[in-house]
Amino acid sequence: MTGVTTPDLGEPEPNEEPGDTAQLRIEFDDKAVDVRGPSSRLHELTDSMSLTVATVGGAAGPTLALGALPEGTPAWVTGAVAGAQLVFLAYVVTTIFVRRSRRTRSA
């Protein structure tokens, strides 16, 4: 039986009292990234991270999908797969920018 093992990196110390500092913690493999900053500016970091993931996904998604198609796949299927990947990417990026503009207008 195989399974995924998660390293024990310990839990970050919770803030006992509310403050103006926010924390973003991302764990992968045996490493962890811990970013702290003013809570009023942390949304910019998460927006940047989302756009970075979307950009990498925009290049890697269609490439990996096309690589997984069997040889002899009709051209229209190949185009549809690549097109669907790019439409999804456009949706994600548009959602990020719409959320950002709403947040800017409400501030």
Automatic annotation (TrEMBL):
It comes from the Bacteria. Residues 1-22 are annotated as: Disordered. Keywords: Membrane, Transmembrane, Transmembrane helix. The chain crosses the membrane at residues 75-98. Residues 10-19 have a biased composition (Acidic residues). This is Uncharacterized protein. It comes from Lentzea atacamensis.
